[in-house]
Amino acid sequence: MSQSSPSRRRWFLYAAVAVVFAGAAWFFAVQSAPPKTSGYSSFRSRDRNQAVPIRAEAARKADLAVHLRAIGTVVPLNTVVVRSRVDGQLLKVSFTEGQEVKQGDILAEIDPEPYLLRLAQMEGAYLQSQSQVRTAKADLERFKQLNAQTLVTLQQLEAQQALVAEREGLLAVEKARVDDARRQLDYTRIEAPISGRLGLRQVDAGNIIRAGDAGGLVTITQTRPITVNFTVPEIELQKVIGPLRAGETLHVEAWDRSERTILATGSLRTVDNQIDLATGTLKLKAEFPNTDEKLFPNQFVNVRLRVQTLRDAVVIPSVGVQFGSRGNYVYLVNAENKATVRDVVLGPSEGQVQAILQGVAPGDLVVLEGLDRLREGRLVQVLAEEPAKADKAPAKSGAGAGAGAGTSAGKGKKKQEGK
After folding, report:
1. Residue 227 pairs with which residues in a beta bridge?
2. How far is it, in rounded angstroms, from Cα 50 to Cα 381?
3. In a 3-state reduction of DSSP, which class is residue 134?
4. What is the pLDDT of residues 365-416, one digit of tens each?
5. Sheet order of strands, 106-110 included
């Protein structure tokens, strides 16, 4: 046992030394071998040298309308609750709910008999007063003749003159009572005070109605023309007040909630005389002819107020503008068909059109699609197809590139595994 143990230890020592020498030889062999390029890396290198398919559009000059957008409420120009001015039984309702009426049209009739009788009484009293005035005036003429003959005193003549004046005053009172009775009789025929569209009927025929009834008979809403109330922030105040005080007509458009359909076109009518402290906004009112009645009272609409029109502004599609840490910029295509970055100063925008104040000149090709693969100096290929086809072309190229990359990477991986 003592002789075999040293020999075994010597054997382990020799084996360890052999392993160390083998590992060192393998390490130096690997370090001295030239690096190998994988299939995926070689594909990426080739892809950088290929032209990126893009869609571009030339900047152009155009007139750009600048709008302020707000949410507005349609408000009738006039709204009247039709009420009776006299008490009585409602005999007849002469309108249909939802009907359009004109000023002066008969809407309902109240029993006129009590008012006819009152008018007859007032007219009788008026005739009696007329007779008394004529008698007093005739006596006054005789008193004047007798006074000239010194047959009556001056005091008697003045007394007769006062009596005539008293009778004339009573006659005027009776005439006013007749006019009032006739007016009360006219009120039994309820007429439309304004032109507009009727609402729902509140009282049926046969009911007793009174002048103090709060509900009234029906409501008339004037819908042609009609107004829209909306607000704008106070920071936009000068854009509105300036042209308005200069006598310009500011056009207003009313759009539906989805802002896809324009409902009516009108003009700004007036602005409020103070800013709301709670919201920091200014109230405005626009008027629309509303001949087709597309605007309905209390309807919510999207309002576009045109405050300015930029003449011969340089415009591009809004999708071409990029935003980053360097600010606002666009990609342009130079004469060598290479992409170049250009910093720009943005102006107002309208819909999908953006005005450029600095950085782009008319005729410059602005890249709209394929921006994610662009860098400064990258070679590009401007597609000449229609926008719909151009959208598919980059996607197809990208898919093909992705498939190629995956194939090359797969092959490279297999080679590495094989080795």
Report:
1. 75, 287
2. 9
3. helix
4. 999 998 888 888 889 988 875 544 444 444 433 333 333 333 333 333 333 3
5. 189-191, 106-110, 88-93, 208-209
Q: Which CATH number fits domain 52-64+312-396: 2.40.420.20, 3.40.1620.10, 3.30.390.10, 2.60.40.10?
A: 2.40.420.20
pTM of the entire predicted model = 0.65
Alpha carbon distances (Å) from 395 to 53, 54, 322, 376: 10, 11, 20, 22
pLDDT digits (tens, 9 = 90+) for 302-324: 999 999 888 999 999 999 999 98
Inform me whether the pLDDT recorded for 18 exceeds 50: yes
pLDDT tens digits along 227-262: 999 999 999 999 999 888 888 999 999 999 998 999
What stretches of 296-386 show up as alpha helix (H) in DSSP? Answer: none
Maximum distance among all alpha carbons in the chain? 192
Confidence of residue 29 (pLDDT cuts 50, 70, 90): low
Q: What is the Cα–Cα distance from 274 to 393, expressed in whole angstroms?
A: 56
Phi, psi for residue 154 in degrees, rounded to 5 = -65, -35
- Calpha distance 97→100 (Å, rounded): 9
Q: For residue 171, what pLDDT is reported?
A: 94
Task: Give the integer Cα–Cα distance in Å for 346 and 364.
Answer: 16
Domains of the chain, by residue range, sit at 52-64+312-396, 68-77+222-311, 78-111+188-221
- Nearest-5° Cα angle at 172, 166 to 176: 145
For tokens 């010194």, the residue is 150
31 phi and psi angles, rounded to 5 deg? -65, -35
Amino acid residing at 351: G
**CA-to-CA distance for 314 and 310, rounded, in angstroms?**
10
Burial class (CB in 10 A: 0-12, 13-18, 19+), 10: exposed
**What per-residue confidence (pLDDT) applies to 19?**
75
Q: Which CATH number applies to 68-77+222-311: 2.40.30.170, 2.60.300.12, 3.30.1360.20, 2.60.120.10?
A: 2.40.30.170
**Measured distance CA(60)–CA(64) in Å, rounded:** 11
User: Regarding the domain delimited by 78-111+188-221, which CATH topology (the fold level of the hierarchy) does it fall under?
Assistant: OB fold (Dihydrolipoamide Acetyltransferase, E2P) (2.40.50)
What is the β-pairing status of strands 345-350 and 353-358?
Answer: antiparallel
As a whole number of angstroms, the distance between CA 79 and CA 192 comes to 12
pLDDT for 212: 81
Whether pLDDT at 203 is above 60: yes
